[in-house]
């Protein structure tokens, strides 16, 4: 296993988790824990495949995936903010509902179960010319950069600024930390929360589009394979900070990469697959204990 | 009082009505008459004794997972880890069911069930103590534990516990003496259903007549008040988590020893989450839980037949379940009533 290959596949496998986690962390900063990321990734992947096949444009496909998931996120948000549904149960319900709807559409409209293949699906293009392939070590990774991966990393480095130095960023964080204060100064905190959930949906939709269009070009019911929850794990692990969360995503992407390799080396893949979840559990324990110690001092 | 009754009935009816509307709309969209389909579901699930048995059989695991969920939810503890406890409990029972000598005979039942209850209890004790002692968010910890349970059991059935005789992802069959008796052969309805009913009844008794059950409800209503009257909130939280684990573990054992007779990768197709929908729909009430479990059992058992004969995809069941979960936690009824009260006071 060469280092070039590891870099390439880590980079590609990180992107969907990263996109979903960026949306989720903004959502959580506004005070909503988004358990429904998985659902929005899945619907994004589905829309991306359909639209890519129909329009022959990866860009329109990604946009459609993102917007459709943003709408789902917004509707989901309304049940939480306006109808005061418990966000956890509603999120789990959304995952089941969307999976059910997509399965239903697959078998009724497309007469297939599980996997949807469409003709002429346009995949995400490589941004940089193939010549970059020649650069040692990082060359192949650079050459395989797709637009969504670049967008994801640009987001990672813009978000800290956006969250701390812009008005909207401040609103979002204020809404999450002190909703009554936000209301008291005349901001519409519920609308801000709805917008943040739509934002999370937008990014989850892109994450789904990346899963479907990065290399596969098809939709599968198990395509997301819990990556929405890994993203959740990442922003819990990174405590809602973009850079730290991105590092966690890289780590999870790397684990995902090595999982396949270690399997051939005789390590049980299932046990490697549980490391993200275990790490989050340990990180949660660690941060909680530390917070408690601080509170005592 | 009347407004209380009104808000309660809205709370129970709303998720049902909305899910009927949503699934009805889906059916209309594909050109099927929703009433015909719902009628077909009803006859397919309750039409004759054999079908009723199939429905109750499908409802059996849900009785356990719903009770396990309700125990925590009514205390305001958002334990979503019943699925994981169900899995590890089931695997523990199955493991003993095929490793202990068959000559133990009937003694296998209590041993397997106790082991499952114990493992389930330990499994949920962990997030319980983490919440009580260190305020670790129980939603995330139990969610993560579900994935860990899937990974561990998946590893075990593909590795150390893999059956030498049959292909992938399954353990050996348990001894035949450890099969829970069938109640209405040839249907798969087994004694686990009765155990489930006993658990629901015990849960009802615990809620109404025991101090621990009362304390659990109290911390769910108002933690500060509970503390003020001398209830130990951490102890109650750990207590309800352990109880939840016990019930979920027993459920796994009953499902394993009554239905599957072995552990496989698809041991639970999300019973923990369907159980959550059942508990929410039944508003944590024992009778509500039994009715909810039978409703979802009916959907599951009829769904397969419906798919076979009228070509309607089985996914309809998931659409209904998801809608029920979302709208069971919506507080429309209560909000509108509260607003009315508020304006009345202002006037």
User: How many strands of chain B?
Assistant: 0
Task: Give the H and E element order of chain B.
Answer: HHHHHHHHHHHHHH
- β content of chain B, as a range? under 5%
How many DSSP E strands of chain A? Answer: 2
Q: Please state the average pLDDT score of chain A.
A: 87
Shape of chain A: globular
Determine the structural class of chain A based on helices, strands and strand pairing: mainly alpha
Mean pLDDT of chain B: 86
Taking the alpha carbons of the first and last residues of chain B, their distance comes to 21 Å
Low-confidence stretches of chain A: none
What oligomeric state do the depicted chains represent? heterodimer
Secondary structure tally, helices of chain B: 14
- Radius of gyration of chain B over alpha carbons? 21 Å
> In angstroms, what separates the terminal alpha carbons of chain A?
49 Å
Largest sheet of chain B: none
Helix-strand pattern of chain A: HHHHEHHHHHEHHHH
Provide tags for this entry.
heterodimer, A: 297 residues, mainly alpha, two-stranded antiparallel ribbon, 2% strand, B: 347 residues, 75% helix, globular, disordered C terminus
Which helices and strands, and how do they pair?
The complex is a heterodimer of chains A (297) and B (347).
Chain A: H1 3-29, H2 37-55, H3 58-81, H4 87-109, E1 115-117, H5 139-143, H6 147-165, H7 167-177, H8 179-184, H9 189-213, E2 218-220, H10 227-237, H11 242-264, H12 269-273, H13 275-296
Helix pairs in contact in A: 1-6, 1-7, 1-9, 1-10, 1-11, 2-3, 2-4, 2-9, 2-10, 3-9, 6-7, 7-9, 10-11, 10-13
Chain B: H1 2-29, H2 34-46, H3 49-73, H4 82-99, H5 108-134, H6 138-158, H7 192-209, H8 211-221, H9 223-228, H10 233-260, H11 271-281, H12 286-310, H13 316-328, H14 332-346
Helix pairs in contact in B: 1-13, 1-14, 2-3, 2-12, 3-7, 3-10, 3-11, 3-12, 4-5, 4-6, 4-10, 4-11, 5-6, 5-10, 7-8, 7-10, 7-12, 8-10, 11-12, 11-13
Write a compact overview of the structure shown.
The complex is a heterodimer of chains A (297) and B (347). In chain A, helix 1 (3-29) packs parallel to helix 6 (147-165) and helix 1 crosses helix 11 (242-264).
């Amino acid at each position: 296993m060469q280092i070039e290959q590891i870099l390439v596949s880590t980079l590609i496998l990180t992107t969907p988790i990263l996109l979903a986690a960026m949306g989720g962390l903004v959502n959580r900063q506004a005070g909503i824990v988004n358990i429904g990321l998985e659902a929005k990734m899945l619907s994004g992947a589905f829309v991306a495949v359909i639209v890519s096949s129909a329009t022959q444009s990866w860009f329109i496909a990604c946009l459609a995936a993102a917007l459709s998931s943003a709408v789902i996120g917004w509707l989901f948000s309304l049940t939480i903010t306006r109808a005061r549904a418990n966000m956890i149960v509603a999120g789990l319900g959304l995952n089941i509902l969307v999976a059910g709807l997509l399965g239903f559409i697959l078998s009724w409209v497309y007469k297939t179960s599980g996997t949807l293949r469409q003709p002429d699906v346009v995949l995400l293009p490589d941004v940089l010319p193939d010549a970059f392939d020649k650069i040692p070590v990082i060359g192949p990774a650079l050459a395989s950069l797709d637009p969504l991966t670049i967008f994801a990393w640009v987001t990672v480095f813009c978000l800290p600024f956006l969250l701390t130095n812009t008005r909207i960023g401040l609103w979002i964080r204020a809404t999450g930390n002190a909703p009554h204060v936000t209301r008291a100064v005349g901001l519409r905190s519920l609308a801000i929360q709805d917008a943040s959930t739509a934002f999370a949906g937008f990014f989850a939709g892109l994450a789904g589009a990346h899963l479907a269009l990065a290399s596969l070009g098809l939709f599968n019911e198990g395509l997301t394979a819990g990556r929405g929850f890994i993203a959740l794990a990442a922003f819990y692990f990174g405590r809602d900070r973009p850079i730290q969360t991105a590092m966690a995503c890289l780590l999870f992407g790397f684990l995902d990469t090595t999982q396949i390799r270690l399997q051939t080396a005789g390590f049980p893949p299932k046990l490697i697959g549980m490391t993200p979840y275990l790490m989050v559990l340990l990180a949660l324990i660690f941060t909680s204990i530390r917070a408690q110690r601080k509170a005592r001092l | 009082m009347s407004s209380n009754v009104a808000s309660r009935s809205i709370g129970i009816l709303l998720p049902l009505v909305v899910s009927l509307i949503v699934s009805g709309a889906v059916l209309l969209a594909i050109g099927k008459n929703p009433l015909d389909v719902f009628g077909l579901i009803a006859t397919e699930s309750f039409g004759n004794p054999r079908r009723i048995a199939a429905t109750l059989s499908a409802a059996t695991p849900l009785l356990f997972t719903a009770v396990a969920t309700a125990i925590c939810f009514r205390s305001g503890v958002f334990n979503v880890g019943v699925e994981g406890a169900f899995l590890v409990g089931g695997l523990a029972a199955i493991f003993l069911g095929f490793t202990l000598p068959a000559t133990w005979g009937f003694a296998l039942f209590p041993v397997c069930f106790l082991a499952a209850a114990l493992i389930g209890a330990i499994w949920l004790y962990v997030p319980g103590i983490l919440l009580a002692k260190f305020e670790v968010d129980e939603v995330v910890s139990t969610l993560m534990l579900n994935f860990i349970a899937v990974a561990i059991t998946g590893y075990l059935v593909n590795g150390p516990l893999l059956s030498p005789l049959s292909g992938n992802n399954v353990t050996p069959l348990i001894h035949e003496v450890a099969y829970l008796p069938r109640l209405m052969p040839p249907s798969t309805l087994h004694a686990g259903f009765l155990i489930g009913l006993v658990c629901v009844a015990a849960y009802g008794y615990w809620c109404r007549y025991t101090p621990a059950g009362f304390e659990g409800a109290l911390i769910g209503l108002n933690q500060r008040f509970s503390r003020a009257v001398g209830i130990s909130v951490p102890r109650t939280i750990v207590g309800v988590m352990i109880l939840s684990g016990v019930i979920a573990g027993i459920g796994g054992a009953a499902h394993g020893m009554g239905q599957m007779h072995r552990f496989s990768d698809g041991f639970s197709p999300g019973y923990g989450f369907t159980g959550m929908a059942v508990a929410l729909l039944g508003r944590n009430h024992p009778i509500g839980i039994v009715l909810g479990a039978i409703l979802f059992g009916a959907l599951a058992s009829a769904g397969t037949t419906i798919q076979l004969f009228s070509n309607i995809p089985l996914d309809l069941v998931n659409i209904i379940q998801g809608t029920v979960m979302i709208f069971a936690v919506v507080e429309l009824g209560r909000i509108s009533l509260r607003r009315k009260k508020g304006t009345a006071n202002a006037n």
